[in-house]
Design goal:
The complex is a heterodimer. Chain A is built from 21 helices and 2 strands. By secondary structure, chain A is mostly helical. A two-stranded antiparallel ribbon of chain A has the order 1-2. In chain A, helix 3 crosses helix 21, helix 4 runs antiparallel to helix 5 and helix 9 crosses helix 13. By secondary structure, chain B is an all-alpha fold. Chain B has a single domain, classed as Helix Hairpins, CATH 1.10.287.3510. Classes of the chains: A mainly alpha, B mainly alpha.
């Protein structure tokens, strides 16, 4: 009985929990973290149950409040967003575990309660965006998550983070405005806000200017949100200036959900027939993606700050996912979805390591991190493993997703673009190597000073980050490897059906 | 030519107004250097979208969609866009609140609310 209502619990229970955090936090700040952790674990469990349900019995449709779709809001879980749901909740769970010590260090004590409340709301908004089947509801959840994100970015009270947050707020609001306009145009054209219904009704008006403009508004809006290359300007500052754990969450979960929303709008609402025939957009997307892959990586190479470097790397990696969209055939999209998972796991791990380094060393400037691997061997090993995945060294997940992308590009005959993927990988090797070189082969500044070195090193050996922060890092690093090896299972059971669903329309 | 254009404008003047307002808002967002004025621009931009929604929900001669007893017919305006915009207005208010809070913080930290001066200061501190 309860199981039937599981989809709506995914959203309502966390909202109640965020209020509970507020109330409990009033009483005692230490209650906040356990409640947040319990909630996100519940969500993850629910997502797993739902995905198995989808794999066994097909898509789950839930009518909120018992109102049927044309009137009410529908929650839909199919193999595509079930998969995304697992990815984002896995990363959110890792981030919440990681958050405890990180928050103690970075967030002012009197702001801990509101931090956890907003953190919970951010996750809830993103989960809502993922499971909703109603396009206006998507906008509402988008704004819930966005406003939480704007505030969270400036939560560490670093002066520059206010500016970063403000810039993101302005661009994010423009994006949201565009999305709202696009939704309005779709409503004018069809008189419906339900995604499935839209997909059925839209083909009749594919040639209308209203629909074209709706498409462009939505596409540009979500591209800003997902930081697709020329629209990525808010991203480096926002990623580099926010507290470590917020960076982890927005760089993995939030970025992925924005991309998901773009895929959902393009493939489920507009269907492949539209984006291939009526409004051929894939060629441009492919070109932009190729530019993004190269430009993001080149910009990343030029950075001296580890978090900023990883932020630009995200721009490049989002390019890979958009690349799949541009090629738009079965294999490439499988690669793209795999890359959504892979990039979330590895970038989550890399940003967590950056957070660990800031936690211990107090800086993320590469020039001040010489020899950090001696101090923090486990963290740096995790970085190396996730970095290898970022470059695409087999048998990691990063290799598998790029392999599928290249295969897809070959199948579509885009040989030149396939070469771009490889160049992107080489450039990734350069920027990942920048850190590895500094960490493993650089000499710490203090080490030349004779006898102090011995005692100093012993002391340094103990300075690995706390276990509760290290555990999620190691888990994610190992996941890069395990997922890469178990990719067949994943492809057959989850990603394959998801892509078939995308290409087959609603 | 001009007459045809004028007619086109008059026939759909509500949409044109929304578009003009939207562009004014975007212009303010891009061209104004004062952060508060940028947020005012953002508000104009959002308001334009709200007006767009509300005007396409309107039916000429329509009344408020109030439930009437059986047998009495009335022409309703479409209530759905209005309800949607109610949500969007709330969102707009919250965004503005967050933005203004951030501007206050920026002013406390840097002592300016001018974009160019702020950029200089940020670059100088890094």
């Amino acid at each position: 009985m309860m199981l039937v209502h599981l989809p709506v619990f995914l959203v309502t229970i966390p909202i109640v929990a965020s209020l509970l955090i507020l109330a409990a936090g009033w009483h005692d700040r230490r209650f906040c973290h356990p409640i947040a952790l319990a909630t996100v674990l519940f969500q993850f469990g629910a997502a797993v149950v739902l995905l198995f349900g989808v794999m066994r019995g097909g898509p789950i449709h839930y009518h909120v409040g018992g109102w049927a779709p044309p009137l009410g809001i529908e929650l839909v879980i199919d193999s595509f967003n079930g998969f995304i749901l697992i990815v984002i909740l896995l990363l959110s769970a890792a981030a919440v575990v990681y958050a405890k010590r990180s928050v103690e260090k970075e967030i002012p004590a009197d702001k801990t309660v509101s931090f956890y409340v907003l953190f919970q709301l951010l996750i809830t908004g993103l989960v809502g965006m993922t499971i909703t089947g109603d396009i206006f509801n998507l906008y509402v959840f988008l704004e819930i998550s966005s406003i939480s994100a704007y505030t969270l970015i400036s939560a560490a009270r670093r002066p520059h983070s206010y500016v970063a947050s403000f810039n993101y707020l302005v661009l994010g609001s423009i994006a949201a405005g565009f999305i709202l306009l696009g939704i309005g145009n779709l409503y004018v054209a069809t008189g419906s806000l339900n995604m499935r219904e839209l997909a059925v009704m839209l083909p009749a008006s594919y040639e209308l200017a209203t629909v074209h403009s709706a498409f462009l508004f939505l596409m540009i809006g979500f591209s800003i949100k997902a930081a697709v290359f020329p629209l990525h300007l808010w991203l480096p500052d926002a990623y580099a200036e926010s507290p470590s754990v917020v960076t982890v969450l927005i760089s993995t979960v939030m970025a992925k959900v924005s991309v998901y929303a773009l895929f959902r709008i393009l493939f489920t609402v507009f269907t492949t027939a539209y984006i291939l025939d009526s409004f051929p957009v894939t060629g441009i997307v492919l070109f932009i993606a190729a530019v993004a892959i190269i430009a993001g990586a080149v910009l990343a190479i030029g950075q001296d700050d580890l978090k900023r470097l990883l932020a630009y790397s995200s721009v490049s990696q989002i390019g890979y996912i958009m690349f799949a969209l541009g090629v738009a055939n079965q294999i490439a999209l499988e690669g793209g979805l795999l890359h959504i998972l892979g990039h979330a796991v590895m970038k989550g791990c890399l940003f967590m390591v950056a957070g660990l380094i800031i936690y211990r060393m107090g800086t993320s400037r590469l020039s001040e991190l010489k020899g950090v691997a001696k101090t923090m061997p486990v963290s740096c090993a995790a970085f190396a493993l996730a970095g290898a995945s970022m470059i695409g060294i087999p048998p990691t997940i990063g290799f598998m997703s790029k392999y599928y992308l290249v295969l897809g590009a070959f199948e579509a005959g885009h040989y030149l673009y396939a070469a771009v993927l490889l160049v992107g990988s080489l450039l990734a090797a350069v920027y990942i190597w920048k850190f590895i070189e500094v960490a493993y082969f650089g000499h710490p500044h203090g080490e030349e000073h004779g006898h102090a070195a011995g005692g100093g090193r012993n002391d340094r050996g103990k300075r690995e980050a706390p276990l509760s922060m290290l555990a999620p890092v190691v888990t994610l690093a190992l996941l890069c490897l395990i997922l890469g090896m178990g990719v067949e299972v994943l492809m057959e059971n989850v990603i394959g059906p998801a892509v078939t669903l995308l290409l087959g329309g609603a | 030519m001009i007459e045809a254009f004028f007619e086109l404008f008059l026939a759909r003047y509500n949409y044109w107004m929304a578009i003009i307002l939207m562009l004014i808002g975007l212009y303010a967002l891009i061209a104004k250097h004062n952060l508060v004025k940028k947020i005012i621009g953002l508000n104009i931009f959002q308001t334009a979208i709200f007006l767009f929604y509300i005007s396409f929900g309107d039916v000429e001669g329509g009344t408020a969609p109030i439930y009437l007893p059986e047998g009495i017919d009335a022409l309703y305006v479409n209530p759905l866009p209005h309800v949607l915009i109610l949500t969007a207005i709330v969102v707009g208010v919250s965004t503005t609140a967050v933005a203004l809070a951030l501007i206050t913080r920026i002013y406390e930290e840097y002592g300016v609310i001018d974009e160019d001066e702020l950029k200089e200061l940020v670059r100088g501190r890094r």
